[in-house]
Amino acid sequence: MDFRFALRSLRKSPGFTALALVVMGLGIGANTAVFSVVNSVLLKPLDLHQPDRIVRLASLWKKSGHQGTVSAPDYHDWHDQSASFSAMSYYYNYEDVVTVGSSAEYGHVAWVGPEFLKVFDEQPVIGRFFSDAEEKFGSGGAALIGYAFWQSHFAGDPAVLGRQLRVGDKVLTIVGVMRPGFGFPEKSEVWLPLTALERDTPSRSAHNYRVVGRLKPGVTVAQAQGEMSGIAARLEKQYPPSNTGKGSAVTLLAEDGVGSVRPTLYLMLGAVALVLLIACANVSNLLLAKATARTREIAIRAAVGASRARIVRQLTAESLVLAIGAGALGLLLALWGSGALVALAPRDVPRIDEVRIDGWVLAFTLAVSTAASVLFGLAPALQASRVDLNDALKSGGGRSTSGGAAGRLRSVLVVGEIALSVVLLAGAGLLIRSFVALHNVALGYHPESVLVMESSYPSSNAESARRGVQFYKDLLAQAATIPGVAAVGGTRMPPGDTLSNGSYWIDRRPTSQELSVTAPWAIFSVVTPGAFRALGIPLRRGRDFDERDSADATFTVIINEALARKSFAGQDPIGRELLCGFDSMKPMRIVGVVGDIHQEGPASPAEAELYMPFEQHARASASLYVVARTTSEPFALAETLRQKARALSTDVPVRFTTLQAELAQTVAAPRFRTLLLGAFAGLAVLLAMAGVYGVMAYVVGQRTGEIGLRVALGASASQVMRMVLGQGLKLAAIGIAIGLAGAVAASTMLTKLLFEVKPTDPATYAGVALLLGAVAVAACYLPARRATRVDPLEALRQE
Question: Which terminus of the chain faces fewer neighbouring Cβ atoms within 10 Å, N or C?
Answer without folding.
Answer: N
